[in-house]
Amino acid sequence: MNAVPSQFSSFLDGSFNALGHWYNIPMENPPSLILVSGPIAVGKSTVSKLLANSLDNAVYIEGDQYLNAHDHFHDISWETKLERSWTAVISAAKRFLDQGAHVIIDFVVEHEFPWICQQLLSRGPRVFHIVLFTDPQTIAQRLRQRDGHVQQMERSLVLLQQLKENANDQQVFIETTNKAPPEIVAEILKIVSTSSSLSN
After folding, report:
1. CATH number at residue 71
2. Is residue 23 part of a domain?
3. Side-chain half-sphere of 197: how many Cα atoms within 13 Å?
4. Of the given ranges (22-31, 84-93, 114-123), which has the lowest mean pLDDT?
5. Residues of the chain with pLDDT > 90: what percent?
6. pLDDT tens digit string along 13-55?
7. Residues 144, 148, 104, 89: what is their CA dihedral angle, to the nearest 10 degrees?
8. What is the domain extent for residue 100?
9. How many domains does the chain have?
């Protein structure tokens, strides 16, 4: 059995299994669908990929890939692009859930959560809506480091405010300021391993 890397040992209660995963949430019937949301530059992609790699039998779906596939469709609205993207994302998630896999979706969730739960009702997965956030100064700093455009910064700050204003008991907010990705992943793993679902 592999040892837990020293940089992760203070974050994780579980030990490595034979495959070297950090944490082993027993596969259940149904598996879990974990939505990782939040504004730009809060660490969604890094955390989501790390989370998928930390679970046995898990897949990672990046929503922006579906959204960006519509870049050359200039005759459809943003709302239509978003609707098509979510439809494709959930369609893919259904296939993986049917195979018994945990699914981690990295995509901004605004008002779609009830629709997502409705779409998955017949499959009955445990659904978790995780919202990552940080302060505006950190968002601005991270976007400058990745050559973020002004439009991205404005969009991210507006979305951050909207998420805070529309917070509800079906979301778990996790602050990412001054936290290493493994620490954030550990928080999510504890939520998933100790809670039945947030969609009930």
Report:
1. 3.40.50.300
2. no
3. 13
4. 22-31
5. 47
6. 333 232 233 344 444 446 899 999 998 889 999 999 999 999 8
7. 170
8. 30-194
9. 1
SS (H, E, C) the chain: CCCCCHHHHCCCCCCCCCCCCCCCCCCCCCCEEEEEECCCCCCHHHHHHHHHHCCCCEEEEEHHHHHHCCCCCCCCCHHHHHHHHHHHHHHHHHHHHHCCCEEEEECCCCCCHHHHHHHCCCCCCEEEEEEEECCHHHHHHHHHHCCCCHHHHHHHHHHHHHHHHCCCCCCEEEECCCCCHHHHHHHHHHHHHHCCCCCC
pLDDT at 75: 85
